[in-house]
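Q: Hi! Curious about what SDR family oxidoreductase looks like structurally. Here's the sequence.
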Amino acid sequence: MSLDGARERRVRTGGIELCVAELGDPAQPTVVLVHGYPDSKEVWSEVASRLAERFHVVLYDVRGHGASTAPRPLRGGFTLEKLTDDFLAVVDAVSPDRPVHLVGHDWGSVQSWEFVTVARTEGRIASFTSMSGPSLDHFGHWIKQRVRRPTPRRVGQLLGQGAKSWYVYLLHTPALPELAWRGPLGKRWPGILRRIERVPPGDYPTPSLPTDAAHGAWLYRDNVRSRLSRPRPDAYAHVPVQLITPLGDAFLSERLYDDLARWAPELVRRTLPAKHWIPRTRPDQVAAWITEFVHTNEDGVPVRDTVATGRYAERFGGQLVLVTGAGSGIGRAIAFAFAEAGARVVAVDRDAEGAVRTAEMSRLIGSPDAWAETVDVSDEQAMEKLAEKVAGEYGVVDVLVNNAGIGLSGSFFDTTPEDWKRVLDANLWGVIHGCRLFGRQMAERGQGGHIVNTASAAAYQPSKALPAYSTSKAAVLMLSECLRAELAGQGIGVSAICPGFVNTNITSTAHFAGVDATEENRRRKRAARLYGLRNYPPEKVADAILRAVVRNQAVVPVTPEARGARLMARFAPRALRAVARMEPPL
Ligand code: NAD
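A: Let's find out. The predicted structure is below.
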């Protein structure tokens, strides 16, 4: 996607001309996107085209960048005061009667912090979404506080951010940055962005990059030293702020925002596992969060009333999560945990009633949207239809949890080929179909994601009574590891969860091979009793799963016995083999 079709106009202010582009219906709320360094407005093209479906989207080249003219002389021409003049001139031109929703990335966010904290813009801005660009005033206070009271943690934070700011010192040197950008760095930059930042090729960066970068060095020189040494004491935001923090940002530490609630009383925090250039690498998520935030503020709803409060709300709010086997036990608990974090949930189960109930409850708990889908995960065609429907109606799944599974107990010779087929179909093929269909959509979208597969401690703990079940789960564990290796380069994590004994319905539906119906019933009851006595709640497994996604963990044994067995598998395999000869409860 590009800015083709955008309406361009030129806005004159303070002796320069700004190039302003507009998309979408001007009758809709206006969203103004401000680019960073060393960028031009094209950095927003992917986000802008998504937002233009609902909003009047305005982008402009900051003075000295892209098709805007540069101030003469350059020195002193890029102060935050002058950048505020520019912003107001753009707003006067594109939305004179209605406050705009401001969005900034990198230096676009740094200057936007100035816009939302000075008195002369009051009433002109309705909300602010900030990405990877702190207020220089807040940053100045942050440094001062840490220098004044230097605990070891605070000194660590200072040194950490100091190391990440190496390029800021370089940009203060005279002439060198200009020479580098107009020379080898300018040529190599697109390749660096692709290789290190994983920015996909497209209409960005533009050929104006060397000039943009050379001019933009004055953004730093005109503002950084003066503001950091004398930060404004009254830099309070007069609008609601949404802070989006990419956790893999090479230039900014998350800790910078620790004190932000003091400066921005109406604050929503969002995090995502990505690097610095999220307008290019995560346009879907960025556009979705902006859309939600703009709508909330347009509706006049206090921000805190609309945002989920769960522990992981920053990370999963608004994301699309699909859980199989969500009609009961662990799957239902997983759906609820994501719902609590504000995710949109697709609850899939072959048990229609169970799935519907989970979706209903998810909405009550905090999911902005939840749907139930009745599908047997082992049915290839049904899964294909599901994948098509989900992509068409709800979007590409951000987190996929292949959790549906069934229990089967019985010796190898008691286990019939039909038993094998049933357990492999549900436990292994269900996971394969899920990964193949939804994983491919994630990979093709190219904006990351996460796959969780529910394996079991039985994946690494052999048992004479669970040959088929354990085989299915060992296969799920290995599949997860292989897929994790394959998808690592695409920002898609894969985790295998190995719960242990968890108190769910699985005991009362498990099949016991080689015994008659009465005996099977008796064994089910016994297993249910034992699992009940163990009483490990599925909610704890769900919590481990959300944590595994946040930390991108590969294999997660959950209960103490699952963790113990994992250790034994590594360090005392003979002892584990001795345990394998004992009769397990399932
Ligand atoms: P559960 O029986 O409470 O829930 C499983 C859900 O999956 C049910 O709603 C069921 O209808 C659904 N399901 C089963 N086969 C399906 C299919 N082919 N298509 C669609 N839906 C299907 O059991 P649970 O304990 O919550 O199990 C969830 C997962 O956790 C399973 O993969 C299980 O093997 C695994 N696990 C459970 C335990 C435990 O102790 N409970 C331990 C280790 C692993």
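A: A fun detail: The pocket of nicotinamide-adenine-dinucleotide is lined by residues 324-325, 327-331, 349-351, 354, 376-378, 403-406, 426, 430, 454, 456, 499, 501-502, 504-506, 509 (CB under 6 Å).
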